[in-house]
């Protein structure tokens, strides 16, 4: 119930306020074998300069009257790997549509309005992820188009997609 969210393409946020972790994925196809290297990091215990997972657990306990225990780094790694293994199994069985509903449940961008190119740029709305994992935006009169992370960045503070 702690409000952790996903920010495209690879950040883990508390609400839409602060980055608390991230994920990096590197993939290679060698002959018929697809190799994936997944790395992830979480701020478990360091309260500064922003916030950590254990701060969020303490806040949740105060607000909800619960007694959740703080997480250790090794416990969080074990839980994450266990969930990741299950998500990989689902992806292998059902493809992207098997995991996208859960992804969208936690991402910060649903219906978010952005400007393309500059603060005075065209108005668009974030609508989803395409088949290649790129962010899709809908611009009135132009339809849906994909925004590639190697040529764009998403500035959440200004709701702006800008060229790098």
UniProtKB/TrEMBL annotation:
<dbReference type="InterPro" id="IPR003142">
    <property type="entry name" value="BPL_C"/>
</dbReference>
<dbReference type="GO" id="GO:0004077">
    <property type="term" value="F:biotin--[biotin carboxyl-carrier protein] ligase activity"/>
</dbReference>
<protein>
    <submittedName>
        <fullName>BPL1 ligase</fullName>
    </submittedName>
</protein>
<keyword id="KW-0436">Ligase</keyword>
<dbReference type="Pfam" id="PF02237">
    <property type="entry name" value="BPL_C"/>
</dbReference>
<dbReference type="GO" id="GO:0005737">
    <property type="term" value="C:cytoplasm"/>
</dbReference>
<dbReference type="InterPro" id="IPR045864">
    <property type="entry name" value="aa-tRNA-synth_II/BPL/LPL"/>
</dbReference>
<dbReference type="InterPro" id="IPR004143">
    <property type="entry name" value="BPL_LPL_catalytic"/>
</dbReference>
<dbReference type="Pfam" id="PF03099">
    <property type="entry name" value="BPL_LplA_LipB"/>
</dbReference>
<feature type="domain" description="BPL/LPL catalytic">
    <location>
        <begin position="1"/>
        <end position="92"/>
    </location>
</feature>
